[in-house]
């Protein structure tokens, strides 16, 4: 079988006793890496465990444990009275798919399965140093350490009181605190029985689609509109029709003129900050929509995810507040300026609807009980108000700076209004140009403009650009690159 390999284990194994990983696991990981990088070849005979232990200056039992683990994973094989040999399972699995050794699945499945192109994600993997978004906050505005302290405190108390045994129960404390906070900040008069916390926005829309949509149902959305609910509602079998918008939001008269009573299942609308244009539905049209919902017998699903990013002067009454939930199902977000793991979404609606919604939520995944408890404490102790004031101050300053930069670099070449709510600007170019080329050239200069930020057809050439995640220096650099690229594309097209 030949002599043992002459290469010393010390050349490819480095023991770091400060690491949390046990020493034998460190040996396993580095041995596997040595095989993969061909420092050790398939079939090489290994020295005895005593010799390896002397080289690495570890106990022989540690080496024995490492070799046992490697054999279990298929990276060595032991032959009685002969020795232990390197075995590369990646080579043997390529020769025979039935070796019994773990191997990665194939690139393409050998069986058919359902594919949904409408659920394809529009988000690219950012590799550039700078990137725009369609409107996300800077998650560093509230220090993660503060949130972790709240979580740690709740976890410690739960351990002391035995509360960890009841994590599957409904978190009534959080629902009480959240309803109190929503009543205080949004002018509701809501008890916890009409409120359902849900972890993610995708879950909210998926649950609504299960509860409200049958194949062929007609759903009305705003022109352009938000891709996420559109994808989910479309995948559920809905027929989506768009309604034109103008400076006052969705044109309610268009619904009256083009659709019949009983034909519409529901209207999905963001009354505070329409996606992507950021326009707000006027008070007059809010009343028109509620009246038409009664006359035509349809539901309104109101998405108010941007409430926390609206100024004090823009906190106009929601459709839900005007209607009391008779025709309106209200969806919102809590703590969107917090670290993502501490954010929450919610549904507000009739009690029997929420009882059904809870069934689906519990299948899709309940919110983390201890996170809810920590968020409840943050509300109860008043910290949420301090966090929100800080976030609003930072966002207000960055919004003003972003508007100044746009005016400074583009002057009369674009039109935009500083949004009263939300975290993005809607920017229209006065002359058409290739946004695809603008995107490609910007990327070469280190600035990513995702496809979801581009809007171009025969009528408009526009960008929806998020600003709140960028600090002043990043903002200046991003706008500089955008301006430079814009000039280049414009010159090419002339």
Automatic annotation (TrEMBL):
SMART domains: HTH_GNTR (SM00345). PANTHER family: HTH-TYPE TRANSCRIPTIONAL REGULATORY PROTEIN GABR. In the C-terminal section; belongs to the class-I pyridoxal-phosphate-dependent aminotransferase family. This is GntR family transcriptional regulator. One of its GO terms (molecular function) is DNA binding. InterPro entries: Aminotransferase_I/II_large, HTH_trans_reg/aminotransferase, PyrdxlP-dep_Trfase, PyrdxlP-dep_Trfase_major, Tscrpt_reg_HTH_GntR, WH-like_DNA-bd_sf, WH_DNA-bd_sf. Residues 21-89 form the HTH gntR-type domain. Keywords: DNA-binding, Pyridoxal phosphate, Transcription, Transcription regulation. Pfam families: Aminotran_1_2, GntR. The keyword Nucleotidyltransferase does not apply.
């Amino acid at each position: 079988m030949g002599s043992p390999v002459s290469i010393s284990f010390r050349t490819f194994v480095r023991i770091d006793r400060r690491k949390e990983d046990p020493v034998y696991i460190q040996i396993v990981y580095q041995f596997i890496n040595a095989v993969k990088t061909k420092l050790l070849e398939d079939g090489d005979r290994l020295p005895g465990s005593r010799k390896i232990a002397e080289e690495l200056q570890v106990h022989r039992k540690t080496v024995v444990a490492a070799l046992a683990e490697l054999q279990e994973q298929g990276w060595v094989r032991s032959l009685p009275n002969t020795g232990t040999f390197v075995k590369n399972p990646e080579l043997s699995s390529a020769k025979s798919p039935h070796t019994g050794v773990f191997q990665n699945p194939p690139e393409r499945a050998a069986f058919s399965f359902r594919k949904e192109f409408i659920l394809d994600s529009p988000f690219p993997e950012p590799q550039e140093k700078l990137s725009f978004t369609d409107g996300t906050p800077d998650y560093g505005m509230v220090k993660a350490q503060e949130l972790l302290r709240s979580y740690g405190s709740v976890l410690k108390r739960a351990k002391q009181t035995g509360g960890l045994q009841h994590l599957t129960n409904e978190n009534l404390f959080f629902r009480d605190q959240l309803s109190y906070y929503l009543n205080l900040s949004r002018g509701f008069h809501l008890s916890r029985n009409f409120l359902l916390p849900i972890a993610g926005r995708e879950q909210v829309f998926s649950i609504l689609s299960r509860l409200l949509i049958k194949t062929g149902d007609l759903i009305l959305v705003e022109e352009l509109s938000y891709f996420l609910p559109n994808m989910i509602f479309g995948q559920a079998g809905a027929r989506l029709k768009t309604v034109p918008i103008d400076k006052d939001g969705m044109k309610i008269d268009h619904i009256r003129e083009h659709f019949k009573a009983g034909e519409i299942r529901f209207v999905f609308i963001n009354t505070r900050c329409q996606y992507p244009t950021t326009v707000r539905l006027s008070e007059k049209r809010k009343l028109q929509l509620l009246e038409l919902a009664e006359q035509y017998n349809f539901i309104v699903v109101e998405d108010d995810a941007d409430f926390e990013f609206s100024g004090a002067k823009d906190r106009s009454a929601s459709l839900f507040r005007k209607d009391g939930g008779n025709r309106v199902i209200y969806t919102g977000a809590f703590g969107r300026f917090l670290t993502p793991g501490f954010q929450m979404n919610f549904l507000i609606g009739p009690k029997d609807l929420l009882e059904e919604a809870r069934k689906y939520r519990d299948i899709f995944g309940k919110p983390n009980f201890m996170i809810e408890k920590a968020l409840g404490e943050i509300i109860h102790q008043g910290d949420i108000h301090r966090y929100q004031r800080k976030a609003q101050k930072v966002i207000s300053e960055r919004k003003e700076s972003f508007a100044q930069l746009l005016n400074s670099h583009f002057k009369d070449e674009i039109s935009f209004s500083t949004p009263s709510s939300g975290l993005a600007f809607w920017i229209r170019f006065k002359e058409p140009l290739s946004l695809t080329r603008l995107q490609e050239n910007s990327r070469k200069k280190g600035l990513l403009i995702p496809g979801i930020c581009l809007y171009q057809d025969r009528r408009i050439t526009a960008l929806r650009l998020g600003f709140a995640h960028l600090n002043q220096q990043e903002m200046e650099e991003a706008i500089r690159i955008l301006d430079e690229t814009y000039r280049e594309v414009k010159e090419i097209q002339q």
